[in-house]
Amino acid sequence: MKTIYKLSALLFLFFNLCYSTITLAQTSHKVTGSVVDSLNVAIADANILLIAGTDTLRTVTDKSGKFIFKAIKTESFSLNISSMGYHTNTRSYKFEKGEKQLEIAPIILKNSGIMLKEVEVHAAVKPMRVMKDTVEFNAAAFQVLAGDKVSDLIKQMPGIEVDFEDNVTTMGKGMTKLRVNGKDFFTNNVKDFISKLPASIVAKIQVIDDYGDDANFTGIKVGEPQKMLNIVTKSEVKGGMFGSIGVNGGTSKQVSVDGNTNIWREKEQIGAYFNADQGDNGAGQSRSSNAAINFRRTFKKNGSFGIKYYFYNNYNDNENVSFIETVNTLGTIYSANQSSGNNKGGNHSVGLDYQNNTQKDFINGSMNIGYSQNIGNNNSSAKQNGIIKQDLLNESNSRNTAPNINGNLNWSRKLAKKGASISGNITLRASLGKNRQNIISNTLYYDPITLVLAKDSLLNRLVNARNNNNNFGGMITYSHPLKKPKDTLSSRNINASYGFAIGNTNNDILTYVTDKANNVRYVDSLSTQYSSLFFSQNIGLNYAFNSKKMNYTLGGSIRPSTLIGDYENLNVQLKNTNINYAPTFNLSYRVKNNKTLSMRYNGNSNSPSPNQLQPVRNTQNLQNVIVGNPNLKPSFSHTFNISYNGNDPKSGKSLQISIGASTTQNQIVSNVILIRDTLNGLKQETHYENTNGAYNVNGNYFYNIPLAKNKFTINLSGNFNYGNNVVFTDNVKLFNQSFAISQSVSSNLMLKKIAINAKATYGLNANNYTLIKGVSRNIETWNLALTARGNFLKTFKFETSFSKRINTGYAIANTNPFLIGATLSKTFLKSKLLTANVKVVDLLAQGNNLSRYVSGNSTIDSRSNQITRYFTFGLSYSLQKFGGSGGMITYY
Predict the structure, then answer these.
(1) Which of 261, 635, 750, 817 is the 20 to 30 Å CA partner of 715?
(2) Three-state DSSP class for residue 155
(3) 181-192 pLDDT per residue, tens
(4) What beta strand segments (E) does 26-88 contain?
């Protein structure tokens, strides 16, 4: 009997268990979500408390800030999220009828700014964190000296370079956008503020692959991102006032005065800047002045409005010498050139922008109105030898004006269906350029046997040019979510887009010739009048997948286009229609924590420009007449890039590698044809052809080894570039193989009151033409540099630099300069706001300005005349107070 009771009890328990399991399966729900800070950076190890009726569930966020709850029995529940250093966030949620899974929007925790007292926690500071689209540096892991600016802090961060003009680059790409705490900061120009803000207010520096505000709102990230620098300040810094005024004077008649003032409040930004300087630049006078004022105001929660005005004016005398080697099927032309002249001009620019971001809508609009004017006077001479001997003497005076207006409007909305969105964009650009140019050309011809001057040809022309460009375009994109995979936090979307662009161009070049009797006549053969209408469409479709470890986008677009050109003086109309295809592929994969791998492929087609298509002769330069080709096809470029970014949290070592390749089908290249005139002189005619065979391979790397708690670092970096370039000369297809490589080793030593940097760099630049074998055109450079800066006697600061450069391979005579520079400054007053400084640049006066570049079938070595040694003395008064509602603090 007891056995029967036991079996009955077990069966009863079994059936109850089965019933409970079935009931639970029918009523349980699932919740997924993520926790981020106000900068949209994931918060790891945040405590999540879920209260559902009488049940309480607990979990913590993973390293990506994500969390998940299963087996929730009730239809409604509440979440309590807490993390040290952030305000606690409590919210209530409810499942819709029949809904089994709920993915809630990212939960934002605000910084509490609460500092723990009486307790000190000492932990190893991780200098670097690698995320999907962001590399983040912890400022606390890097040492700075008293008075250092943000630019001095950034210079220590692996993979980032800051030059002497405060231009910032990372892995060969320039930083084009600046934000502070994730928000617009006065202007977007990085160099404007990294040399003004003190390093002591910084908590983190973030280098972000930015796809634009619209992409951040919708999550649709396609195309090539820009590099954005985001400065995260310490929690107590929420605003401030900073600025300075200074005056400098020195040798070479140098005088300058500058000042800036900036008011940074939580809801308002006001900034003003001015600068004026003059001096002797070696070729003559140099003067410039510029000023800017901007205002930005935030409203509601995420809205802002800004207005800015910018003015610039300059005057410069200039002198330049160059040596040009041009390879042709007939032989080689060597040209020794000299030029001198002056330019003066200026521009005005007014900009407006508006932005508003809600949970459902994002809108951004901007408009910029500008006006520029330039007056130039130039004299040049060219002595040509080789397969031809002739001299070219030219004098030109020009005046041009160019008013323009640009407008842009973006709008996005998240739709009722979760994960769905729609966005639109409209752009407008209009410009009107006017140019009036007086050109006096004199060609001296020599007898090819005796080399005696045979004849000169003088031509005086007045050229009036007018160019009016108007462009209007737009795009609309719809993103549709697909069914999500079970038991994952991934998402899948199909994105469809349609865009269009309409462009209208009117171009007139009217040429008048003055004879010896000063009679002026219009020359129809040297003039052109044409208008063009361009219409293109872009129909795109791509698939996007996003998960914890991997994001990728795969798709493409079709781009039909039509160009209609009307040439009035020829009574000719041209119509060119093309259909181009452009695939795209982006992949971002988190291999491990702090290690990411990304790949990008872009296929892009480019239609010929109106100038390349027009079947008329552009004779503004009679030594190089340009003739378009109406039968050109659009070119199609393939670009592939793979990059790796990794950091070892324990050792602090970091490695960044990038390798890329590109090739172009139907590339549009110049075909330079040499034509002999009746006096045995040579002139060029430039035509355009489609061709294949060009490609490029490039790569760079940066390896950082920190030692002694980041006080001493060793950096290895390098890059290479190999290009197979196609050129035509006299209708013959030629190749120019170029190869460039650079390798650097550097070290940084940061002590309490001194910072030292040493760097050695080797560079090789080589070019080889198929027409000329065995002739070296290689440039080799060695550059050894040592810089040091530091503080002493409390109020003194010094900075010094030494560099030795060894050059070989230039066609222009040059020295191997040893450059020495130094700055000594002293602060005054109790607040240390007044500073006096003495500066010397290029103490030994050995600097030269050499450069080489290759254009088509020509190699150009150039050097400008410029004073490189000068001494200056300056005085400046600065104010830097930052803080929040609790008061302002002066940072040094």
Answers:
(1) 817
(2) coil
(3) 887 777 777 777
(4) 29-37, 47-52, 55-60, 66-72, 76-82
